[in-house]
Automatic annotation (TrEMBL):
Its main location: mitochondrion. The chain crosses the membrane at residues 36-54. It is found in: Mitochondrion inner membrane. Belongs to the complex I NDUFB4 subunit family. The keyword DNA damage does not apply. It is a single-pass membrane protein. Pfam families: NDUF_B4. Keywords: Electron transport, Membrane, Mitochondrion, Mitochondrion inner membrane, Respiratory chain, Transmembrane, Transmembrane helix, Transport. One of its GO terms (cellular component) is mitochondrial inner membrane. This is NADH dehydrogenase [ubiquinone] 1 beta subcomplex subunit 4.
Amino acid sequence: MGAHGHETLLKDPAIEEWVWMRNNTHRYFKFTRRTAPALVTFGLVVPALTFYFASATQDKVDLKPMVKKSWAEAYAEKKSE
């Protein structure tokens, strides 16, 4: 930016069109044989696998900290030395 803020921003029409199309994909989307596998994969398979692995590992991982002392106790002990 310059001292006075009088710069002009050049816009590429191709980039502007791409951004507009990307932001408005819902207007042109159609359920076809080409889009069906992606929809099934990301709409059903991925969530199902995520749920399966989350439920299979639930309560099997111990997330407690490994230290016996709290951070405040360790800090106080270190400071007193």
